Amino acid sequence: MKRLVILGGGYGGITIAQHLVDKKIPTDTEIILIDRMPFQGLKTEYYALAAGSVSDMDIRVQFPDDPRLSLQYGEVTGVDLASKRIDFQDAASLEYNNLIIALGCVDKFHDIPGAEQYSNTIQTLADTRNTYHKVNNVKPYGQITIVGGGLSGVELAAELRESRKDLNIRIVDRGSSILSAFPEKLQLFVREWFTEHDIEMKGHTELSRVEQGIIHNGNELIYTDVTVWTAGIQPSPVVQNLNVLKDTQGRVLLNEYHQIPSYPEVYVVGDCASLPFSPSAQAAQGQGKQVVEVIHALWKGETPDLGQIKLKGVLGSLGKKSGFGVMGKRTVMLGKVPRTLKSGVLWMSKHHFG
After folding, report:
1. Model confidence at 345, in pLDDT bands (50, 70, 90)?
2. Whole-prediction pTM value?
3. Gap between the Cα atoms of 203 and 220, Å rounded
4. Per-residue pLDDT tens for 93-145?
5. How far is CA 176 from the centre of its chain?
6. Dihedral-angle region of residue 272 (phi above 0 means left; psi in -120 to 50 means alpha; beta otherwise)
7. What is the largest CA-CA distance in the chain?
8. Pair 215, 222: CB distance under 8 Å
9. How many C-beta atoms lie closer than 10 Å to residue 175's C-beta?
């Protein structure tokens, strides 16, 4: 039997598994999906779990149930590309014929002393659970500081404001504005929402050290009860350790079929892949669908014919009643409509649609 292994059951991995079992699979091929957890956690909603506004069960998605798909759980420690072997923390190694690496990302702490040790994150489901306990154990009128003014930090700050109206919430960023990668009209809307809801925004912050209860901004001491880190990501350590060509962000360079050029039996999907756009759930899903197209074409002895991955846009939440979005290239959406759209996207993700 030939063995096709999918490493990681996130947005890219579960998309590939679902689309593979939706079509015909050769009788001499077994498909194995490997993840550390027995379900997918909807990572785009981890901010709400950390804020305490949704439960763990609300953001779980079961893996596809199909007799042609085997599920295996474990912590991957390494991949030997030359030997076609996957190593695990507490299990025997597994050999493969084809491999899809969809292991996602980890936090990037930018070599700031104490940042990893004294910050809380929302990068994994376990991390998010811990962050929820830390944040929601803070006494009334305590201080929460979120480091990073991108999408995750903004959504967490807004959701936390609705969940804990008694807390002081601060978001710090090294740029001049939160959501600096978004159009100015959108930035202004979110800044006004933050001001109206008493969320402090502190820009031009260059962190030099993080300690328990203190963030160092040069010579300035910023006091806090809990620090939450949303200030950057990098590929999984397993991918970091692969001796293959990568871009400046450490993501694997691929050919037009999403394969590692020197190891065409290996595909890389999602946050670990070097793509012409920023990492996102939508990008991982789009790439995953194309990988399935490639695999099916090769099974049939045909040459894959892929188009461009087209992203629909970005949606963000400001609590449960407001939001923001950029559709297409520059169409800005503000208020209730983008929030409603995001709820629809979440529903589709939970039911394997989209």
Report:
1. confident
2. 0.94
3. 13
4. 999 999 999 999 999 999 999 999 999 999 999 999 999 999 999 999 999 99
5. 25
6. alpha
7. 65
8. yes
9. 13
Alpha-carbon distance 270 to 245, whole Å? 16
Does residue 71 contact residue 57 with C-beta atoms inside 8 Å? no
What's the rounded Cα separation, in Å, for the pair 144 and 50?
Answer: 12
Helical packing angle, 11-21 and 281-299, nearest 10°: 30
Cα of 105 vs its chain's centroid, Å? 7
Left if phi > 0, otherwise alpha if psi is -120 to 50, otherwise beta: which for 335?
A: left
What is the helix (H) or strand (E) element at residue 200, kind and residue range? strand 199-202
Which tokens sit at 43?
A: 């990572």
Report whether 178 contacts 153 (CB < 8 A): yes
Residues 316 and 338: beta-carbon distance below 8 Å: yes
Pairing of strands 40-41, 120-121: unpaired
Say how many Å lie between the first and final Cα of the chain, rounded. 32
Asked whether 168 and 139 are in contact (CB, 8 A), the reply is: no
Beta strand 322-327 with 313-318 is antiparallel
* Helix, strand, coil tally for the chain in percent (to 5): 30, 30, 40
**Structure token digits, residue 5:** 């292994």
Separation between Cα atoms, residue 277 and residue 128, nearest integer Å: 26
